[in-house]
Structures
1.
Amino acid sequence: MSFDGRPLLFLGCGKMGGAILAGLLARGVAPEQLHIIEPNRGAVATFVQRGVHHHGSHESLPEDFSPALILLAVKPQVMEEALPAVGRLASPETVYVSVAAGKTIPWFAERLGPTARVVRAMPNTPAAVGRGMTVLVAGEAVTSEQRQLAADLMEAVGEIAWVEDETLLDPVTALSGGGPAYVFLMIECLAKAGEEAGLPADLARRLASETVAGAGELVRRSEGQEPEELRQNVTSPGGTTLEALKILMAPDGLQPLMTRAIAAATRRSRELAS
């Protein structure tokens, strides 16, 4: 990793911040490099026990404190109130990485100053098990070295991709940010359909969960094969899977439903950012 011993500061340490912090520690980042501003010490007790520095507020930070990176991991609705705590640290040597949905780079520039180095990151909840997917976009002032810092940070919890157009984070939020919830719903629906076909409820839930988890892992490991090809491999001519796919792939089937769902979530993301 490219942190070179400089401190990293977390503003807030909820589920996503905690997942990233755990990922950094698992990758060998020294606990003494890591600092958390979190009023509730009990919420970060596990990290403090491992040697991570805890600050109840920004007031306990050293006057000469100069972190390489500040992760903004508080909820979007309290970002306005929380941001001044680290605003004094804005400098060309520090990059801010925000995981707050709906808060744009221009929004941060208004509050931190136009020269602040800001990267927006949109991770998803599988980050909690090191299998997240994060899309990042960098402000104009961010250097290549600072982009690498942000990449190293988010790669601690999974895969990453960069975009150059910040507006693309709205469909990213709709697809990837919300995607785990859609998959969980798919598991619910599969299990319910299995029950209605006569399976015991506990067996239906297990079949649905393990099937979705296994299919996802198969996609991940099938390098060079598209999901379409994998689907065709499972679909025998005249077989049972084909009968189900005739319904799911009908003109009023799964694709138009999912397209409408992603469009609705994208619209909402844009509303929240305005």
2.
Amino acid sequence: AALAAIVFGLVGAWNLWSSTQALGRAGANAEQVVRVQAIYADVLRADADATNAFLVGGLEDPVLRDDYDAALKRAATTITTAATAQPADGVALAALNGALQDYATLVEQARAYNRQGLPVGNTYMTSASATLRTSAVPVLEALLQANTERSRGELAAAGAWWPTAAAGVV
């Protein structure tokens, strides 16, 4: 009976420790979901600011320009933080960073042509938004899905009760 109680206690302690570790990993994955959502929001905000400023024509509103710059800076900073926090997302975040650089380059070209009054600026702006939606948004959605699935998997692992129950039955 004493041996069975010791085994039951050890299995229960191991199960509790294992659940604690799984909950920690689930929390880290949930935090990554929040970071990716913040990147998503900043990227779309930057695109909305650039598009709205561009629609005015000529010189753009400095408030929209500042908000665009701040949103892209926040996105870049959060990408760095996310890559450090979750190494499994490193390749996808690197691709996302490259897509954002391409987007920003196209926006700057569109702005330059727009200031000169050349209609080709509209083509660059359309291309920038299309690049963002075809290159960056799918990566963001994949990151959201992957981290959500990892978090759910860890939460399921944290809820494993069978080892303690099996030890109790034995």
3.
Amino acid sequence: AERQRSRPSFVPPPEIRQLRDVTRYRADLVGARTAEKNRAEKLLEDAQIKLSVVASDIFGVSGRAMMAALIAGERDPKALAQLARTRMRGKITALQEAFNGRFTDHHAFLLARMLARVDATDADIAGLDARIEELIAPFSTAARLDEIPGIGPVAAAIIIAEIGTDMSRVPTAGQ
């Protein structure tokens, strides 16, 4: 049997490998932040606080203000609902009902840790975004990928990080 020769695997240049490391770590942190937000939402549900039923994003300005008040010891549903801003103001009655739960100091302790972790992860992601901007700068012509509808700067950086900029390995458009 004749052995088929395989081509050597693609090893990107150091600049692309560094970009790849940072974009992959960013994706991991986004996943970790999502998991932490899910834990916080589950904790509120455990306390029979149904904020996520009323608010589309409990981590928005209004939701964060309400969670901060819960952590600080506020338990009055009317007072908590009054923290709603802009469009959420139209849902005051539903918010009052959502805060009829059994949120305890135990829940406050855990929620404070979860929100701190979300905030720290947000800060880390912002730092990675700044680093991605630095690393992608030399590839500014390739970074024009973000001009494609649906491809933003982060997605463009991920594409460059994963496939590089050398398209000579793909000799024809069909390939």
